[in-house]
Design brief:
The structure is a homodimer. Chain A is built from 10 helices and 8 strands. With about 260 residues, the first copy, chain A, is an alpha/beta fold. Chain A folds into 2 domains: about 1-230, Alpha-Beta Barrel (TIM Barrel); about 235-265. In chain A, strands 1-2-3-4-5-6-7-8 form an 8-stranded parallel barrel, surrounded by 6 helices. The longest helix of chain A has 18 residues, at about 135-150. At the A-B interface, helix 7, helix 8, helix 9 and helix 10 of A face helix 7, helix 8, helix 9 and helix 10 of B.
């Protein structure tokens, strides 16, 4: 399982405030807490209405975080300038979050991704908007894989995000996402699958319960990458438990070693 | 979702001690705590090597618990004498836990079940032992349904337990159980499916995480009945969350109302 810590994202008010105030301490603590909780990558999103500001934010975040934690980064922006600034600075192979099938995004992102050694999240979003149902997600995943292998990415450098939509607004989407994951996993056994599953609980109370239920279900269908808040109580233990149940952790070796290391709390 | 509170079971040492000492207070508190946490039924198991003692234990437990909580009971024994004593006393339609395909159990249980109004759990265990894989579970489920409808049980009075085996000993069983649930649900849309899923975590540390991951996965495949400890932190909220994600709780109405009632903690 690849766990990407989602917390350093400017859509969260305390993070936006910390970026704006250049509050290094707050960002470093947020990064370190996530690594301690089990994050394999730290997502960095310095989103700002002004593209130049966002690119400068990314530069500041990349330098700050990679100087203070030992895990690689996930550069999170729809703005290719911000991504490029991040790619120029990273010390370890990063994840780019994310390319989509939108024409403009493809055109701006593909040449940059082709030039840099990186993994990339392919989100099943196109000029037609968000996907609906299972087959639509699968078809978009196949097109993303085609585009990305076309510029030389290896299949295991690609992470397909099937688009986790809020179940409060799209009641069928929870089941559809699970079935789409299973279908993508079956046809592309080596691709990574996962994404920002906390979207599922958007608009609902006590979002952590929805996120915890979703992560188990998605793993049981073949998800192997999760953009989550690893500091949420029970999140990392339940991810490890789900892998143990589904045979992704043979003989529960990883679960038991996490217990011995005190990582199950 | 039918939630059956599993705690009053003589395989748990404090319960065995309470039964032996006729400690009414301990049993009543254990029943009330489970109802408060969301149990729809209270499981009663007074297991004892001596069949007469077990039957007497069941009688004591049934009287005590139904005088103190308002939910119906789940009479849990492989000893038909204990089941009969319970059936003679219950004030509300109970669940009998459980019949199996073992010849001796079928022979002793079927005539009794035919005579009493009750729901019944059919566990996929036969003279050949525990089931292996998906098709074996499905075939046994079909045979159990055939036996039970044959004595006049309606399809929605039957709860198929696909046999949740310890993943520490049977690494493939977690996935097989989920797939078997999906297959049974597809072919028998009106049957109830579920059982004692805490068995999955037997032999592993921090069992609650395994149980919480398992319950989400099983619900996403069509489980609608769970024998669990509803007092486990996060258990009932995650059950409700899993139903909201999977469309078993349209527009998340039940999840939101549980939140408003303070049932999500």
């Amino acid at each position: 399982m690849i766990i990407i810590g989602e917390k350093i994202n400017a859509t969260r008010k305390p993070i936006a405030a910390a970026i704006s105030a250049k509050d290094e301490e707050h960002i470093i603590t947020t990064a370190k807490d996530q690594v301690a909780a089990g994050a394999d990558y730290i997502d960095l999103n310095g989103g700002d209405p002004n593209p130049e500001t966002e690119a400068a934010n990314m530069e500041w975040l990349v330098k700050l975080v990679q100087d203070n934690v030992d895990v690689p980064l996930c550069l999170d922006s729809s703005n290719i300038k911000a991504i490029e600034r991040g790619l120029a600075l990273v010390k370890s192979k990063p994840i780019v979050n994310s390319i989509t099938l939108e024409s403009e995004r493809l055109e701006s992102f593909l040449p940059v991704l082709a030039e840099h050694e990186c993994m990339v999240i392919g989100l099943c979003l196109s000029d037609d908007g968000m996907p609906r149902g299972v087959d639509d997600r699968f078809d978009r995943a196949a097109r993303l894989i085609d585009q990305l292998t076309g510029i030389g990415k290896k299949i295991d450098e690609i992470i397909i995000d099937p688009a986790f939509l809020p179940v409060s607004a799209e009641p069928e989407s929870g089941k559809a996402v699970c079935q789409a994951i299973a279908k993508i996993r079956e046809k592309f056994p080596e691709v990574h699958i996962g994404g920002g599953l906390s979207n599922v609980s958007f608009g609902l109370p006590k979002r952590k319960f929805i996120n915890l239920a979703m992560v188990s279900m998605a793993i049981s269908n073949g998800m192997d990458t999760a953009i989550v808040d690893p500091c949420t109580p029970y999140m990392v233990p339940i991810i490890l438990a789900a892998e143990a149940i589904c045979g992704a952790d043979q003989w529960c070796a990883n679960y038991i070693s996490a217990y011995r290391d005190g990582r199950l709390g």
